[in-house]
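Fold description:
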Amino acid sequence: EVEGFLHDNDLEKLKRAVEVFGSIHAGGREHCACLALQAEENNKSRALEELMELVPSESVQIARAKRAWLDGDFETSKAICESLLDSTAQAVRLSARNGQAVTRLLSIQNLDDAFSVRDPFRMVLKQLEGSRHRQALAASHLNMGIAEAVYAETVSKFNNVDAPIDAAMRQWKQGLTVLKQAPDSLLKAMLHTNMTWGMLQMINEQEYLTRAKEFGRDALATYKALDTNEDLGRTLGLLA
């Protein structure tokens, strides 16, 4: 049943797998793994709540925060993340800080919000600098760049000025530098896509359009190498 779900994305097969493993050993590793898959694939299921009852772990709390964020319930997501900021596990602590950061990013209402929104992203980046987890470090540069871009757009909006996005471009470029020491990944395509967007905002730069095309094509090359279409639509839209 699990193999069928992974191959065909058939949620009914996954549901049957949850029922079978639950009848054999409720709360066992296989049962919890299938519940986690079910929660990720179907936000209308009770899988996360059931998982939390069986295994009230911090990783499940992070999953709950992510689910709330994807559903647009930023306050719940932020509250869960902030409750985990003192975790003894670094992975949980950094995930929670990152969750706090992205919820604040989408809750900006004024300039005061914008001035502080980059702080949690900086904290995550600082803790990961020098880390052997290159993918996590590159993802942090990706997120920090997005925070810088949103900050610049917010300042432009409220002050009626053209705030530069150079800081965002530097972060994305640094993320690509980090990935030179790591295998090709979807992160590389996402970084190139963001730099495509960035160049399209910098219309006063020499050959901005040519450089935007180059970044976009680099993103497409990574998608092709990975044989994936995840997030490809955004890249194609920017190239168009």
In short: The radius of gyration is 20 Å.
